[in-house]
């Protein structure tokens, strides 16, 4: 398909380009039956991998995510089959945002918005590059940032992008006038690269994985949450699966981004959909397909993968033999909202809060005392051993540290802790 585009603000036609020239897919690996052998560490999954396709490339996955601390998705209503190989060639706004992203450790990308609107922000009109003229584009967008809840932005345009985005980088308050309320952790957002005009492996395998994930997600989303004895028990996040443009790493197609954690996965195949979703809904990482994470330098991604794979193995062992009875714990957010959650003895507070999607608890390092994103407040003499030296060291990095600060990943759920809660103790969550 030959595209002619206005590529500058004075509407000069700069070039006619054959934008749709994907490499041939004839050489794609055919269906084979063998156990996958990755060089990325032990396979700690319980998924059945006995019948699947080979990875396109056996190069190690961990550490392949370039460092960034935020990800901005522009939601276009233009379907991926109509995307050019490079959006910068057709979208002047994308070009400007890429410049902005360079100075903000950010990545900007297009996602296909074909889901029913889930917030007022997404009901905004899309004005895509092809219909807009050089200065007329505008898109609803979602901004994902480390240690912040995702933000739905009603409209990003040439006219407002600087002020809208700057507002979120210069204040910690998410109430800028052009944005909607935060979606917090109510959603598990998955973006599958299906950008076939860029690389046919993404177009074929990416599309297959996208369809498989969306099918699984629809099933899960339509399953009623189990009833609970308390009205404030958090339910599973709603899963939104969308297609996204080129993210880098065609050879590891299918590639998937998962938010709010910011984890990147690669070498996925359609029969991985169910296992990936169950890991993510459990708040766990699938280390065997993990490429890296937003907010973590590449060498640290490799180290985290090494530790995480081991942690995962330990986790499986611990969960199979040590988890005890259900108890009830009550968390309270920085603005006073209480959430009573069922938790199993033997879990830790980070896992309980993170799995329930409570705000401000991320557990980025998986409980390895390397991140302080599991910061909680435990005031009023809870029945706990004092913090270890390592916990104290990491607490120095906690934002809003107080005398009663602890790291939730180091606090085990016990009957004694539940009794303290029953008598009025509360597990406080920081604002950030
Ligand atoms: S989860 Fe990273 S320090 Fe607790």
Automatic annotation (TrEMBL):
BP-aspect Gene Ontology terms: P450-containing electron transport chain
Gene Ontology MF, one: 2 iron, 2 sulfur cluster binding
Top-level taxonomic group: Eukaryota
Keyword Ribosomal protein appears in the UniProt entry: no
A cellular component term, taken from the record's GO annotations: mitochondrion
One Pfam family per UniProt: Suc_Fer-like
InterPro entries assigned to the protein according to its UniProt record, in alphabetical order: 2Fe-2S_ferredoxin-like_sf, 2Fe-2S_ferredoxin-type, Adrenodoxin-like, Aim32/Apd1-like, Beta-grasp_dom_sf, Thioredoxin-like_sf
Gene3D superfamilies: 3.10.20.30, Glutaredoxin
Cofactor: [2Fe-2S] cluster
Domain 2Fe-2S ferredoxin-type: 327-432
UniProt keywords, alphabetically: 2Fe-2S, Iron, Iron-sulfur, Metal-binding
PANTHER family on file: FERREDOXIN-2, MITOCHONDRIAL (PTHR23426:SF65), FERREDOXIN/ADRENODOXIN (PTHR23426)
The family this protein is said to belong to: Belongs to the adrenodoxin/putidaredoxin family.
Protein name: 2Fe-2S ferredoxin-type domain-containing protein
